[in-house]
Amino acid sequence: MSPAQGPTVLIVPGLRDHVEDHWQTHLARALPGAVTVPPLKADRLSRDARVAALDAALAAIAGPVVFAAHSAGVMIVAHWARNHGRPIAGALLVTPADLEVPLPPGYPSSEALAANGWLPVPRKPLPFPSILAASTNDPLGAFDRVAGLADAWGAELVDAGAVGHLNPAAGYGEWPPAMTFLRRLGVSC
């Protein structure tokens, strides 16, 4: 996008990558010029591979960028920010998965997450403005723990209500508040 149009939105999915009726998929269709980090073909649980994929997608974008991350994608952004210096215009961080507590069945074990570099979760302030939307009934991240991440990262915490993990399994496809938050971060939408 040209600077007159505002930042490019870079969508950072979680570990399940691209889900057809997910709010991020709808967002990508609704925002001309939005870019999505492509799914990995190998090393799908590797934090390093996920961070490298984010960095490669970012390198292909000229101009300012705003991240739109969900679940483990939020953690990918936090890990990326520790070691990369490219200026970022902002980040919308939505229902981060709390990888420091055991996840429900069907998700990677704490041992697998640790072995693949996800732990510890970074707790340094993010070097860009961010809005963290947290659910009050997310099975993958208790509100108080996610609020602690927002505080550590210097992110504005937004109570998204009882939206589960804000995914199709929780009954969500399109999520209109995403556009409102992205506008606040300087995106023309």
UniProtKB/TrEMBL annotation:
InterPro entries named in the record: AB_hydrolase_fold (IPR029058), RBBP9/YdeN (IPR010662)
Name the keywords, alphabetized: Hydrolase
One example of the protein's molecular function in GO is: hydrolase activity
Is Hydrolase found in the keyword set? Answer: yes
Superkingdom of the source species:
Bacteria
- UniProt name for this protein: Alpha/beta hydrolase
Organism listed in the record: Zavarzinia compransoris
